[in-house]
Amino acid sequence: MQTIQLKTIVGEDGILQIQIPHEFKHKSLEVLVVFQLLVSETQMIHPQGWPSNFFNKTWGSCSDDPIIMDDQGISIELDNVSYP
User: Fold this and answer.
1) What b/e string do you get for 41-52 counting C-beta neighbours within 10 Å, with b at 16 or more?
2) Model-level pTM?
3) What are the boundaries of each domain within the chain?
4) Count of other CB atoms within 10 angstroms of residue 80
């Protein structure tokens, strides 16, 4: 048994589309659908952890305060930073 968990939007026609791995092509499957209504679309999370529309909302947010490179360049230590 395999589990696929996703957050998606049902189309205007009421059809929910689910992509199944190609290895199951032309196979008989038993499928169980359990769904939970999300409070709002803004709660949807991108598969990589970004909130829905994050980049559209924040794009250009630093345009009035551009990043300026000085003569010191970029510290190599920045590449060695580990994140939780």
Assistant:
1) eeeeeeeeeeee
2) 0.40
3) 26-54
4) 7
Q: Where are the beta strands (DSSP E) in the chain?
A: none
User: What DSSP element (H or E) covers 57?
Assistant: helix 54-58
Residue 35: half-sphere exposure toward Cβ, Cα within 13 Å: 11
Tell me the three state secondary structure of residue 51.
strand
Tell me the per-residue pLDDT of 27-84, one tens digit each, with 9 for 90 and over. Answer: 999 999 999 887 665 556 666 677 777 888 888 887 787 777 777 777 777 767 666 6
Asked whether the beta carbons of 9 and 41 are under 8 A apart, the reply is yes
Place of tokens 């990043």: 67
Q: What is d(CA 46, CA 48) in angstroms, rounded to the nearest whole number?
A: 5
